[in-house]
Amino acid sequence: MNGSSLKKPSPTTNFENILALRPPIGGWTPFSSIDDPGHLSTVLFLEGCPWRCGYCHNRHLWNHRAQTDIHQLRAFVSHLENRRGLLDSVVISGGEPTAFQQLPELADSLRSHYRVALHTGGAETETFAQALPFINWVGFDFKTTWDNYSQLTRNNQSGTNGQRSLECLLASQTPYEIRTTITPTHHTQEILLNMLDQLIALDIKTWFLQEGRQSSRKRMEELDELLNDAFIDQLRNRADDSKIKINMRHADGSQSTLTHSEQRLGYSSDRS
Ligand code: SF4
Domain 3-174: which topology? Predict the structure, then answer.
């Protein structure tokens, strides 16, 4: 489905709609300057995810509670009402927010007063496509090569859905960021090169590679070995040839650009 083909309804104006939708709130962060780049945002974490990535740091959000935490939801809505004009955007994250079938209605309810950003891997393509007309920016999680998705996520449908969702995103003209969290247990140099080829085939212009938080010194050493200088040269050369930019978010919070120039930038991020 092409999200851009959906008609945009007129914006709603009442945050009460959000209470009525009862989104499965798993938590929220009042202020963030990094989750919607260039915008001061508040982040809503939704419960529910059909995938089971081995490196997931949000396992507590995998399953819904029996009932929405209405007190937490009221506090979130109150924050939105009180900070109107002071905050730029609401980031809907998770879990996997497309697992909430009324995500389009939720985004529509927010957008009359806020810019809306979405963090997703595109697990539920239909919901994602229907939500896109109400979304201003997407941070899209490209986890591995499409044929390796089921192994990483332990969900047989994940590669198909992830690929279809990314195609919907590209067709929609919605601004986005494609990012991959690298873990030595799930990524090899060959996989990373194949992922680059898949992004090149889609004419993606920029790829953000993020060094995942590692659980031990041994894992950190494995990550260093995976991203050794010879491999980085290989990655850079292939990317430069195809004019795709690769930005690296390092585990220490800094960022560098791998392609064209190796300029180290001051940057703080705790995204994983
Ligand atoms: S898609 Fe995200 S929330 Fe779901 S298991 Fe993977 S990392 Fe965790």
Answer: TIM Barrel (3.20.20)
